[in-house]
Amino acid sequence: MTIGLYIHVPFCVRKCLYCDFTSYPYHPSDAQTYLQAVRREMRLYGKILSTEERKVSSLFVGGGTPTCLPADGLAAMIEDVGCVFKLLPDCEITVEANPGTIGREGLTQLAAAGVNRLSIGVQSFQDGLLKMLGRIHDARAALEAVQAARKAGFQNVNIDLIFGIPGQSAGNWLETLGRAVELSPEHISVYGLQLEAGTPLERAVTLGKLAACPEELELSMYRTAIDFLTGHYYEHYEISNFARPGRWSAHNLKYWLNRPYLGIGAGAHSCFRGERFANETSLNLYFEKVFRGEYPVKDREVLSEKMAMSEFMFLGLRLLRGIDLNMFNRRFGKRAEDVYSIQIARLLEQGLIEARDGCLRLSVKGLPLANRVFREFV
């Protein structure tokens, strides 16, 4: 058994206008306390985990903006992981980074600490759209961030991009895709903008100050991304993810394949020992619990068989290769075709999924309608 380890760094220089993740403005004193708390939490788990449960095959440091921390502090935190957990020789170690918060020197420190994959939040190569999203960088800084990663020795780089931004044209999107491909990253993630309730961008759209991207245009942008990126030899392996051969995200695969992962830090989520649980999102509550020697868990839920089967279906369908029906049978002792006979028959009839080679997977028609398919199994 191996696990995935996620560490959440909830600090940002400034919160983006579309973001509803757990994040706080960066203050040096809070950051130092936070790094101490993360070390404490890891050691709490070190007391209860078996030797097998300490084997980590993927480590992902996300946020927030992990790279708004001083590079030496972030590198030290990553090195501390090895004091509690056993990082396997081929462990994928990813750090999320935002342009404007990284330079060659800091990235070199991260590489020396064992980080072997960088995920850069570019989002767009149009300055006007970046400003609308509330990003702190411009297109030039995005380009320089990728170049700095290469100069620091990173050979596995992901670029995040967003489509469906208010005011974004089909031409804007095609230009962004083209500039991304010119940088030749090993991995590209494309996400449709979600107008999350309560965010400044959502309020602006609701109040009529901004016009939401038309649904048909957003769908067209998604199809453009698929055609363009696969045409440039990126493998479309998950709804939102494209990679060069052998460069799939090992950590994210754990989520989609229902493998165990442990989350460390304020607001981090875990799926471990048959339970899903989430840490306190409040920094103060997180600090209080950890420094008292308590696990900082806020919500905990035991996964019933019904829930586990449901998650197996809708998470597994995110992968373009689909769900291995034999694997479902081995895990649950039941056939997915029997448990979900009505749903599967309906989706097959609608042409939203297809059965092939012992797998169920989204069809070309079903791919942009994935959420509609997933609801059948929730």
Structure description:
The protein has 15 helices and 17 strands. With 378 residues, it is an alpha/beta fold. The protein folds into 2 domains: 3-256, TIM Barrel (Alpha-Beta Barrel), CATH 3.20.20; 305-375, Arc Repressor Mutant, subunit A. α2 links the parallel β4 (55-63) and β5 (86-97). The longest helix is centred in the first third of the chain and has 19 residues, at 28-46. The mean pLDDT is 97.
Largest sheet report: 9 strands, mixed
Helix content: 40-55%
Number of helical regions = 15
CATH superfamily name of the largest domain?
A: Aldolase class I
Structural class: alpha/beta
Looking at the structure, the CATH topology of the largest domain is TIM Barrel
The average pLDDT score comes to 97
Shape: globular
Q: How much of the polypeptide forms β-strand, as a percent range?
A: 15-25%
Span from first to last CA? 28 Å
Domain Radical SAM core: 1-232
EC number: 1.3.99.-
GO cellular component, one term: cytoplasm
GO biological process, one term: porphyrin-containing compound biosynthetic process
Task: Report a brief summary of the structure.
By secondary structure, the chain is of the alpha/beta class.
Notable characteristics:
378 residues; Arc Repressor Mutant, subunit A; 9-stranded mixed sheet; single chain; 3-stranded antiparallel sheet; TIM Barrel; 15 helices; alpha/beta
